[in-house]
Design goal:
460 residues, 12 strands, alpha/beta, D-Maltodextrin-Binding Protein, domain 2, 2 domains, ABC transporter substrate-binding protein, signal, disordered N terminus, SBP, six-stranded mixed β-sheet, four-stranded mixed β-sheet, Bact_solute-bd_prot1
Length: 460
Amino acid sequence: MRRTSSTTNRNRRTVKAAAGLLAGALALSLTACGGDDDKSDTNGSTPTTGSGSALSLPKLDGTSLEVAAVWTGPEQANFKKVLAEFEKRTGAKVTFVPAQDPIINFLGSKIAGGQPPDVAMLPQPGAIKQAVDKKWATPLGDAALAELKKNYSQGWQDIGAVNGKPYGVYYKAANKSLVWYNAQVFENAGASEPKTWDELLTTAQTVYDSGVTPFSIPGADGWPLTDWFENVYLSQAGPEKYDQLAKHEIKWTDPSVKQALTTLAQVWGKKDYVAGGADGALQTQFPNSVTQVFTGGDQPKAAMVYEGDFVQVNIGQTDAKIGTDAKVFPFPKVGSAAPVVSGGDAAVILKDSEGAQALATFLASPDAAEIQAKLGGYLSPNKNVDLAAYPNDVQRKIAQSLVAAGDDFRFDMSDQAPQAFGGTPGKGEWKDLQDFLKNPTDVAGIQKKLESDAAAAYGN
């Protein structure tokens, strides 16, 4: 199962104040960034950090380590630069092992074959719990734990713990409540950044009337569809309902779910609002959903794409400059407050050794995070990362808001669910929302399917 009751209760804190802080900070500053519009450098050499001398790491000459993660493309390339710095400091040799999603299944096959990686980057709190339950994971040692306590708020420490014992270092985080847009399209259409859902629909119609399809939706990947739902649901139903649905304490047939799906259908159900219509969206994977918004000048395939701060990595593969050509606004509020949904990837030790513990210690430090921060498309929950490390003002504001939220945030709902429901391609919530994208008129039918799949996965 992909959820832990002991730590989840601590994670599910009321976040109205934090949501206001984050949404307010983002609304005031995300696109008012004219002086530092550098494109993220995804091809440069490994940057140096200013805090390297503060971290003590052992000499590991002759040690070989493997790190598994599902990251691909620039994200993988940038993380390898972090691993290269660890190699430089310790003398160890670190190999990146590409993993398939869901990674917990990939790890199971590796462990069954007697070849587990030393460290795995797990994207869900429930995956950490599952690794602990299967006795795959090793608790963080004293050095890694000291670095974790020094650099992370209690909330981020808690979601990496199982039964109060720390196992995971959340090396990477995400603000998953952002909408990115082609600034030239908006300017040509006379469209403005919306603050409410109704204003978003008005903006979409304005963009459509100018001759550009409003939205790019990566329907081929189920996880972005769950993120769409979570933002609408959190804002519309509120934090308490969000927590209840995340733990399956209320059913997916609840009226609040009907309301959220009906709201989503106002976008998903208008084929002229979605690039390629539903059929085209269901064949569009996440990277392409981003690049098609920022390719083609002021006549792209779509004007807007919803997803987290990590979209910047994919924008970096186009000619668009973040802050000028590519701008961003907070996901509009559907109810009384704008939503703020977070996610992340945690480093978990599978083979206990001096080398694996040292790598976890390094990944818990500002030193490691600042290397990848400088390369763009990355966000760290590490509160001691120098904000100047981020390559542009947009990213700095997003990072500052995340750290300012402290312990008060909502973690991605599907990442809290059992893997069979919230984290498996072609199954559970991922598949059900793909079916809903294909036929957004069948709200009741999709609710029944969601509830049936959730009940089977949660066992209640």
